[in-house]
Amino acid sequence: MAALARLQERLEGLREEYFLTNRAIDEDRKTKYKAAVKIQRWFRACRVRAYLRHLSRMVILIQKWWRGYLRRKNFREIVERAYFIKKLKFYNEMAVRIQKMWRGYYVRKYIHNFYVLKKYLKAVSVNNELVRSELQEYAEMKENEKKMKDLEKKEKEKKYQARKMHYLLSTEQIPGIYNSPFKKSPDPMELLLRKSKPLTHRKQQVKSPFAELYDWPTCKKPPAFVTALPLLPADRQKPQGPFRNPAEVLQQRYKPLEPTLRVRESMYSPQAKAKEATQREEWRNPLHDNEFLPFSSYHKNDEKYEPSLCKSGKYGQEAYGTKYFREVYPKKWIADKDFETLFSSIALFEKFGKTYSSTGQIV
Amino acid sequence: MTLWCLMKGRRRLEESTREMTEREKINAAKAGGLTVFVTQSSESSAIPGYLLFSVSWPVWRFASVVCLLRPLLMDVIPSIRQTSALALGRLGDYDVKLAEAIVKAGILPQLICSLPEENRYYKKTAAFVLRAIAKHSPQLAQAIVQCGALEMLVICLEDFDPGVKEGASWALGYIARHNPELSQAVVDAGAVPLLVLCIQEPEIALKRIAASTLSDISKHSPELAQTVVDAGAIAHLAQMISNPDAKLKRQVLSALSQIAKHSVDLAELVVEAEIFPVVLTCLTDSDEYVKKNGATLIREIAKHTPELSQFIVNSGGVAAVIDCIGSCKGTVRLPGIMTLGYVAAHSENLSMAVIVSKGIPPLCVCLIEEHEDHIKAAAAWALGQIGRHSAEHARHVAVANVLPTLLDVFMDTHSSEDLKMKTKKALKNILQKCTHFPALEPLLHDAPPSIMKYIIGQFSKVLPHDSKARRLFVTTGGLKKVQEIKAEPGSLLQEYINTINNCYPEEIVRYYSPGYSEMLLERVENYQPVL
């Protein structure tokens, strides 16, 4: 029993000891476990790292090869393109230089050419002078024409007045107003009166509608067509009878002559003179003198006479067609008698050829 | 006298329109026409007040006369119809209200419908009525077109009698001149080829009217002008330029200029018709309006492109235009001035050609002599166009003593706004290129600040480089004047003034600055003499 009590006392301590040793072993185990885990962890990490390094090295290798392959494929094109661009730039440069020089030359020679401009301006002023002088001449010509027209009008007026006042002419006995005995020579009006014919108050001539065209200095004759019938005096007696309208007749009678161009041309005009040369040629050059000789085939058709087929027989002309027309075969007649009439013929017609004609033949 | 006639005519018409014998009817219609004719014949010498008085009194009576004339238009006897149509025409010609009364009374359809069967006198009179109504306003012309008058007028144009053709084309011309739609209606009725045929007829009056109608048609738009050109009008019009009749030339030149003004192609077509040396003879014609229309034609051609202007210069047109300007007065000069402006505006070579042809003196004379503002404005514009291209051009303009004139016009209080603006622009353009100092210096003394800055600007460009000019500038008093100018600091004018001042030594600048003498005297006062 004492051993048991001693054991029991030791049991308490044993328990504690047991617990403590176990605890120590456990802790020991834990630290060893942790250390082992640590080592394993590290090792695994190293392995993984080595694997990753390996992987990345492989990937780099693959990519390197692949990229190199792609680039080598496109390399030619890239080089060609770069070369082309370089050449193009170079050519552009050179072209710009050429254009620069050409444009400078062209502009200096043609567009901004000072000397040409100077000559042009001189030419312009010379031309202007010419134009001005021509216009001046034209204006003067017009002025002169106007003056001439006015003068003519005045002259006409004066002459008309003189004709109206013809009675003022001086006679042998009585000197007229314009012929004063105290003056040495008669007034110009007197001379005009002497020259003029007395005016009778018949109907004045109707002003021709072409008068205004006659005024045009370049138009020497009126237009050939007549737009209105000439006006006759309204109080004429119309003659009785089937006469044409007198205005029409007069128009037809006095229709202006419209000669052809050849007739209108004067003998001395340049065209006529030019014709002379050709005429002389023709006079020199003909083959024979008979101008109007016809061609050799002219009489061809009237030399040979061809009689018509119907009228010609073997020995000459037949009488058929002239002497008789139809042929008569009495042998072919069926009966001797002629046709009989059933009805009596018209009595008057029976007498035809029998009664009143001496040369009529009785059948 | 007129009132009595009016009374008499009206009473006769009123009393017995139905029971009158033919003679009386004719007389009544003639009286109706005569009354208006009396008032119209007094028009040529009368005072307008008198006319208004003589018409306003029985205007309502006139309106009733219209109603009375209406049955006479349908009378059996042709001479009555014709006289009543003539009376209507004269009434309509005289006053707008009467024309409106005629349109409202519905007379036109019956007038127009009976046209094809009538004789040529009636046709002429009917055309006269239509023309008298159409001339007053576009609405009346529209009313006429709606009645179907255009077809009838075109039928009249095909008639043989030249008087009928003249009346018809005159009426068409008055209708077409109001606006483009009416013109288009006239063209659609097929009038243009017939008008071109009318132009070739020998009667001068018919040619005139046909040319004037073509001018009225083609003035509105390029399409209408193209229609006229397609009918072959240009060749015939070009031939007629050398005709001696002045009124015909007016119309022909006006027609050609209305055609040429719309576009480059039309202008080239007109030029290809070989008008060129012949048109220049028109510029020396004795009739003013022929000169004006000739200059207008040349202007319309010159304004489109430099090539056309070049062509005009080469054919000596510029010299002729310059002579024309020199020989006329008033509005007749205006197209010529504008021609020179257009020619000079295209390029500097052309501008030099204008200068060489002695173009500047007449323009300067215009600027001085003319009273109308728009002519002066045109002359100022033309001078600006000549001088603006380069220093050489500006020098020619300045040497002709133009700048002081321009400045005077600009400063004149009576000038209109438009004139002032144009003169200012011209001065600006010329001054910006002018380096001719003898001409610039007088301007320094008179110019307002807006012009001054250009002048000073020019000086500031040249003075730094030219020592002789600097000396001249001082001796002519320019520097003094420059010092007297007050300018806001920082403005362009101040910069120019500074540039000029920097060209001279400081003493001289101070010497010429205003108030220098006072400053010196003050110094004298404050000086302590050295004993």
Automatic annotation (TrEMBL), chain A:
Keyword Nucleotidyltransferase: no
Any one GO cellular component localisation term in the record: cytoplasm
Ranges in a coiled coil: 134-161
Residues annotated as transmembrane: none
Location (main, coarse): cytoplasm
Domain of life of the source: Eukaryota
Keywords, comma-separated and alphabetical: Calmodulin-binding, Coiled coil, Cytoplasm, Repeat
Compartments it resides in: Cytoplasm
Pfam families assigned to the protein according to its UniProt record, in alphabetical order: IQ
GO molecular function: calmodulin binding
InterPro entries assigned: ASPM, IQ_motif_EF-hand-BS, P-loop_NTPase
GO biological process entries: establishment of meiotic spindle localization; mitotic cell cycle; spindle organization
PANTHER family linked to this entry: ASSEMBLY FACTOR FOR SPINDLE MICROTUBULES
Name of the protein this chain belongs to: Spermatosis associated 17
TrEMBL record, chain B:
GO cellular component, one term: extracellular region
PANTHER family: SPERM-ASSOCIATED ANTIGEN 6, SPERM-ASSOCIATED ANTIGEN 6 ARMADILLO REPEAT-CONTAINING
Identification of the protein by name: Sperm associated antigen 6
Signal sequence coordinates: none
Top-level taxon of the source organism: Eukaryota
GO terms of biological process kind: epithelial cilium movement involved in extracellular fluid movement; filopodium assembly; neuron projection extension; sperm axoneme assembly
Molecular function GO labels: microtubule binding
SMART domains with a match to the protein in the record: ARM (SM00185)
InterPro entries hit by this protein: ARM-like, ARM-type_fold, Armadillo
